[in-house]
Amino acid sequence: MKTETSFFMTAVCMILFTKASHAWKTCLSEADRKGGSMERETIAAISTGMTNAGIGIVRISGKDAFSAADRVFRGKEKITECMSHTIHYGYIKDGDETVDQVLVMVMKGPRTFTGEDTVEINCHGGTYVVSRVLDTVLKQGVRPAEPGEFTKRAFLNGKMDLSQAEAVGELISSSSDYALKNSISQLKGSIKNKISDIRNDIIYNTAYIESAIDDPEHYNLEGFDAKLKKKSEEIINEIKKLINSYRNGKVFKEGIQTVIVGKPNAGKSSLLNVLAGHERAIVTEIEGTTRDVIEEQISLQGITLNVVDTAGIRQTDDRVEKIGVDRAVGYVRNADLVIYVADSSRNLDENDEKILDMIYDKKKIILLNKSDLETVVTREMIADRAGDAPVIEISAAEETGIEELGDTIKSMFLKGEISFDEEVYITSARQKNALSLALESMEKVVESIENGMPEDFYSIDLMDAYESLGSITGEAVGEDLVNEIFSRFCMGK
Questions:
Q1: What tens digit of pLDDT does each residue of 47-95 get?
Q2: Strand partners of residue 101
Q3: Rounded to whole angstroms, what are the CA distances from 60 to 164, 194, 360, 492?
Q4: CA angle 188–191–194, rounded 5-degree value
Q5: Which H/E stretch holds residue 213?
Q6: 110: cis peptide before it, omega within 30°?
Q7: What are the C-alpha distances in Å from 131 to residues 59, 135, 205, 238, 296?
Q8: Which of 20-24, 75-79, 94-98, 412-416 has the lowest mean pLDDT?
C-alpha cells in the first residue's frame, strides 16, 4: 500500500510541477510585457458590432472596473456597493453632460468571463452613442482593450484553456450549423477533456518509469514494456483519430471553396440565386451576361459553400468576356469542388468538351440543368466523360434537384456520421500540427520498446508527446504564440 501511494504521489507531483512551471512562466512573461506589474491594467472596449442597432455594450474588465464605472455612472446605487450579477438603471455622465440612458451590469470576479471584476454598460446602439460612452469610460484611466484581450485574460486567469479560447473566436465567426455546433462542443471542453485524458495516461506511465529508476527495490519493470506498448498503441490510435477528424473540422470551419462553371446561359447564375435564396446574380436570356466572377457564402444542409459563379466558358473574341473566361479557369484550379452546369435542353458542343477536359482531375459534380424542358442530354450520354463524378438532373427555374445536390456534397466532403455529443473534431491547423508531433513521439516510444531500448530512453519521447499535447490546451505554449492567437479576435472579445 505504501509503495502504491508513493507512486501515485510521484505521478501527481510530476503533473502539478509541470502545470505550475507553465503557469509561472506564463504569468511572469505577461507581467514583464505589462511593465513588471503582476496586476494588469483595467481595459474597456465596445463588445457589440459597430453598426446602428437597438443596443450597444461597452465592457470594462480589471481591478478598477467598478471604481471607473462609478465615476461616470449616475444611478440609485454606487457600482462599488452593488451586489454581483445585478443590473442597474441610470445615466452615463461626462462631467455635467449626460451621454446616454443605460443599464449597467455588475459582475464581481472570479465569476465572470475574464475572471476579473467586470462591468457591462448597455446603452443605445447608435455607433456615435456607443463610441461616446466608451470615450467617457477611457477618460477614467482605463486602457482600450487589445484584440481578443478579454478572452486572453480568461485564459490567463484559468477560466478556460487555449482550445476553448480558440473556440470562442470560431463561434463568433461560424457561418453554418455544423460550424456553430462544433464551436459550442469545443467551448464546452470536448478537445480539452480528450487531450487531458491522453496526457494523464502518458504522465502516469512516465511517472512509473521514473519511480522504478529511482527506487528499483519497490517498482518492478518486468513485463512493463509489453503493457506500455499496448497503452502507447491505444494512445496512437486516439491521436490518429483526432488528426483524421481535421478533414471534417476544416469543412465546418472554412467551408468548401466551390466554383460553378459552364457555357453561357447554362443556368449557372440561376443556380447561384437558388442556393443563395435571393437574386445575387443578374439572369437574362442574353449570353455572356455574367462577365466577371460573383462570390457568395452559402449554407447548404449545415455546410458552408464559398461559391464563385464564373463567366460562361466559351471561345470568344470579346476582350472583356475573354478576361472573365480566363479568371474562371484560374478559380477552377484552386477549387475544392467544381459544379459543372450543363444545359440539358441543348446538345453538348466543343465548349462543353473543353470544360469537361479542364475539370477532369477535379472533385466535381455535374448538373444537367433545365430538366423541366424537353431534354436532349441524359445521364448516360455524359457518364463516360464524368468518370466517378455524380450526375444530377436539376431545374434551377423550378428549384428541383437542390436537395439531392446538398446530400451529394455532404457525402463527398464529410466522413462518417456527424455527432457532436460523441465525437471530437479538430478545426485548427495549429492543433493538428501539435497532434502530429505527439504522434511522432509516441511512435518512437513503440519503436524503442520493439528495439529493446532501456526505459529511461523512451521516457524522453513520452514527455515530448506530453508537451506537444499540452500546447493544444495552453499548458505548454510560449507567450508569442498566445499573443498571435488572440490577435485574430475582434476588439471587444
A1: 998 889 999 999 999 999 999 999 999 999 999 999 999 999 999 999 9
A2: 91
A3: 22, 34, 56, 10
A4: 115
A5: helix 190-214
A6: yes
A7: 12, 6, 56, 49, 31
A8: 20-24
The b-or-e profile of 226-246 (16+ CB within 10 A means b, else e) is eebeebbeebbebbeebbebb
Q: Which residues pair with 407 in a beta bridge?
A: none
Q: Whose CA is closest to 41, among 24, 18, 60, 54?
A: 60
What's the rounded Cα separation, in Å, for the pair 360 and 488? 38
Q: CA 172 to CA 170: how far, in whole Å?
A: 5
Residue entry with cell 467551408: 255
For 361-407, what is each residue's pLDDT tens digit?
Answer: 889 999 998 888 888 888 888 877 777 889 999 988 888 999 999 99
Which one, of 355, 351, 322, 341, lies nearest residue 268 by Cα? 341
Please state which CATH number belongs to domain 252-413.
Answer: 3.40.50.300
For residue 472, the SS3 value is: helix
Which fold would CATH assign to domain 43-145? Gyrase A; domain 2 (3.30.1360)
Q: Residue 235 has which C-alpha cell?
A: 494512445
Domain with CATH 1.20.120.430 in the chain: 185-245+424-485
**Residue 432 near residue 244 (C-beta atoms within 8 A):** no
Within 8 A by CB and 6+ apart from 172, the residues are 489, 490, 493
Confidence of residue 323 (pLDDT cuts 50, 70, 90): low
Q: Does domain 185-245+424-485 have CATH number 2.60.120.380?
A: no
Q: How far apart are CA 53 and CA 55, in angstroms?
A: 6
Grid coordinates of 11: 505521478
